Structures are given as C-alpha cells and as structure tokens.
From TrEMBL:
The keyword Methyltransferase does not apply. InterPro entries: Alpha_CA_prokaryot-like, CA_dom, CA_dom_sf, Carbonic_anhydrase_a-class. Residues 1-23 form the signal peptide. Keywords: Lyase, Metal-binding, Signal, Zinc. Its EC number is 4.2.1.1. The keyword tRNA processing does not apply. Belongs to the alpha-carbonic anhydrase family. It is an enzyme of class 4 (lyase). It comes from Pseudomonas fluorescens. This is carbonic anhydrase. GO terms for molecular function: carbonate dehydratase activity; zinc ion binding. Residues 29-250 form the Alpha-carbonic anhydrase domain.
Amino acid sequence: MKKQLLASAITLIITGVCNSAWATTGKAADWSYTTPTGPENWGELSSEYKRCTSGLAQSPIDIRDAIETELAPLVFTYQPGTATVLNNGHTLQVSSSGTGSITVPSGDYAFVQMHFHTPSEEKIMGRTFPLNAHLVHRNTAGELAVVALLFEEGTHNPTLEPILTAMPTQTGGLATLDSLNIADLLPTSRHHYSYAGSLTTPPCSEGVRWHVFSTVAQLSTAQLQAFQALYPMNARPVQPLNGRRVQVGG
C-alpha cells in the first residue's frame, strides 16, 4: 500500500510539473513581465533562472535573414477532445484530452499545452503581431518542440472564441470546454521558420526546437481586447541570435 501511495504521489508531482508553463522543481521564485521581477531581472531572481541572463540560445527572436531550405513538413495528428482553460497567473494555458502529436525531423512529440502572449513574442523582420500562441510538445526523452502561431486583427476566429469566452479572470481559475480541436487553429500551409532556442519564461531552459508558421492567422478586435483585458502585456523581449541559423521552408 505504501508503495502504491508513493507511486501515486510521484505521478501527481510529475503531472503538475509537465502541465505548468513551465515551473522548475520545488517552489519557483516569483517572476512577472514588469519591474522589478520582469524579464530584465529574471536571471537574478533565482539560481534556477540564471540561463535567462547567461544563455546564448534564448527565445524569442526577431526572425531575419532566414535561409531557404528543404525543411521537412510539419505533420500534426491532433484529435478533438474536451479541454481545460487555466489562468496560471502569467497567461491562459489550454490543455486537451484529445490525442495529439507533431512529427518533426528530430522525431515525434506529444502535445502538452498551448498558451498565449500579447504582443507576439516572435517578430518577423521587425514586425510585431498583436497576439501569438505557443503549442508546446514533448518527446519521450523530455525534449521540447514548440510551434508558434501569429495572429493579426481581422476576422472573427471561431476556434479561439470558446477559449476566450470561458477564460477565468482569477489566477488559478479553471474552466472546462466540452470540445476543442486545436488542429482548427493551424494554417493550411506548413511553411515555417525553424531554429534552436529556449523557453521564453523562467527557467529559460535551452534545447527547445522552435517552428514558427509564416502564415498569419486572424482574430477580431473584440477577441484581442478580451485577452488583453486580462493580460495587457505578457511577452518577453526578443533575444540576440548569437550566430544561430534560422531556416525557412516546409
């Protein structure tokens, strides 16, 4: 019985860590997007966050001078399912019961969660977008691959609507959606930018494979304002490229 209780406890701990965006083990130091706990000071808030300052392969970046290449297409196998929308104090985090994964040149990665930033953390040739979504995936070795979707103001986005309608206004609030198919957010074209980077929040761990769609999706002004009423600004500034190559293709 003790072994069963211990196994259950370990499972709950692992699940909690995997579904956060992204916490380290133990009690993480408080951080935010504003002074004095904002991005410029993340590296000093905790020894676990030092990579935020010292790292040489950090995200996000301003995508420039991308090298056109024969990138393998991104292959998504998302299925609809129930979903939860969590206000985690930094963003809205969406998890789904539907099976989902992505196949990239380095292998298969299972979908973990999706979250949002305003304005967009990624830039393209200096251009900032009003919103972006990060779709986080993890492989069996614990390595991460993130797909970034960019949004501009335009037509109403029906896939985002249930998320924004249900979003909890209090930190820690959790809402449930009867059905969500994240595949409906994806553009038809798989053309994308690819580079090696990091988490864009503490602990800023590196070794993350980034894939940023070049096709920009749309959402209505009312939808954008609904998110910004909750989070007016939750984006890390772009980081130096430090000689990394950015490829484009697909």
